[in-house]
């Protein structure tokens, strides 16, 4: 297997890279020459006290890592592929209390409890309320004439959905937005968020959620929070577990969906034929293609629990393994012309919600519902929406984020 012709020192988790683009050409090089490739790093730069990680680029290999938690652990070094270099081991260990960073059987126990809030029946119960909210969000933005699509539209429905789901007063959604932004923005100097500010935001959100859980234990209501925490036994969450679950929702259920909606709008406006098709026919396949195209989470990681082999590479116990969804979702072995935004693409076995296995996204149905409702409302009320500037990207090592997208609301 040949060595890829990458610039010396290139790092697939360098936030400076993602501030400008997702490195799709470089991923393509790896898929063709070294699909599982060792990415050396300066010692400790990712916060783990090591010298690099494996880059997994092919669709089939990302799925293999995702579905073998006994070989590839989400818990040992967490699922987050890069922290700030100043992150301490104790700070990383706190992250392991989040479901995203658990392995079976503890992950299985927590997931079985929280999935009560994401049953088809639970999602259907939200649909009418969210449809009305999507319409009001779009109408309020249209009245402005021009604005930032991210703050005016894309962030609003995911936040309101979380508030609706867990019974948070809608007036508090701005606080959740602020907390979630601070938690993921430590790589972006423009946002002036230090590691300490991000940690404090996480603690404030957890405390807020724990207080909500305590109130529901004291006086249960007919909502998902009460069903999750009403009795602290093997079948329910403790207040602290609920707090970390809400923290996960604030990032996994807010940041990712809002970025999918933003990237989707930008894709439509730079592919006007697809926007015309969507307005005319509303294909059911559109939301899945938006997620594939956006791939809001560029990568997560696992840690090898023993020596193993993957894609011709010999991986040693304890080494980190990056599973790059952005590469897998552009694998030409799986997708015909992956570089084309095609809202009629079917089948579409993208890994935008994960590669399967125990960590497949619990909120997929809710995310697809939000994307559908948002673009239906946009197509109805703003058929002539247009770009007023280029997107300003988030500087992040693992999120394909957009900070601002200026538009004319047509």
UniProtKB/TrEMBL annotation:
Presence of the UniProt keyword Oxidoreductase in the record: yes
CDD domains for this protein: CYP142-like (cd11033)
Protein origin, superkingdom: Bacteria
Lineage start: Bacteria, Bacillati, Actinomycetota, Actinomycetes, Kitasatosporales
Family (UniProt): Belongs to the cytochrome P450 family.
Pfam family, one: p450
Name under which the protein is recorded: Steroid C27-monooxygenase
GO molecular function: cholest-4-en-3-one 26-monooxygenase activity; heme binding; iron ion binding; steroid hydroxylase activity
One GO-annotated biological process of the protein: cholesterol catabolic process
Keyword Acetylation: no
Organism whose genome encodes this protein: Streptomyces natalensis ATCC 27448
UniProt keywords, alphabetically: Heme, Iron, Metal-binding, Monooxygenase, Oxidoreductase
